[in-house]
């Protein structure tokens, strides 16, 4: 579990892509964009990787300029392939679990 977090948070994300299927019936896609930044597409949002937070969770946000109004996501490893996704915004709080179904 921690190994997956450490591998993802390392400077060299390599050229890996991860595809997830979530318990709510949605899908997520995690990849490295052309600028070399890690991105997570989840519930129609493109969220940029920010690092590992104090709870040892991967942290993403949409960089809209105002942190309190931005969409933020924390991704907590439950197993090596299963994650709890917690999406926060000023108006909502949403949680689901997602499983890695493939990677490149």
Description:
Helix content is 8%, strand content 50%. The chain starts with a helix and ends with a strand. The N terminus is likely disordered.
Short description:
With 104 residues, the protein is mainly beta. The chain has one helix at residues 2-9, and strands spanning 18-22, 27-32, 38-42, 45-52, 58-61, 72-77, 82-88, 93-103.
Task: Note the topology.
Elements lengths: L1 H8 L8 E5 L4 E6 L5 E5 L2 E8 L5 E4 L10 E6 L4 E7 L4 E11 L1
What features would you highlight for this structure?
about 10% helix; disordered N terminus; about 100 residues; mainly beta; 8 strands; globular; 8-stranded antiparallel β-barrel; 1 helix; single chain
**Largest sheet, described in full?**
8 strands, antiparallel, barrel
- Tell me, rounded to a whole number, the average pLDDT: 85
SS summary, helix count: 1
Strand order of the largest sheet: 1-2-3-4-5-6-7-8
What helical percentage do the residues reach?
under 10%
C-alpha end-to-end distance: 19 Å
User: Compute the gyration radius: what is it?
Assistant: 13 Å
User: How are helices and strands ordered from N to C?
Assistant: HEEEEEEEE
Share in β-strands: over 45%
Query: Low-confidence stretches at least 5 residues in length (pLDDT < 50)?
Result: 1-13
Estimated structural class: mainly beta
| Shape category | globular
Give the number of DSSP strands. 8
């Amino acid at each position: 579990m921690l190994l997956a977090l450490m591998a993802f948070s390392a400077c060299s994300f390599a050229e890996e892509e991860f595809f997830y299927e979530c318990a709510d019936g949605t899908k997520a896609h995690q990849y490295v964009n052309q600028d070399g930044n890690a991105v997570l597409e989840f519930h129609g949002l493109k969220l940029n990787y920010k690092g590992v937070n104090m709870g040892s969770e991967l942290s993403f946000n949409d960089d809209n300029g105002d942190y309190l109004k931005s969409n933020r996501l924390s991704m907590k490893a439950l197993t090596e392939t299963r994650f709890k996704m917690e999406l926060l915004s000023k108006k909502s709080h949403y949680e689901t679990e997602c499983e890695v179904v493939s990677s490149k």
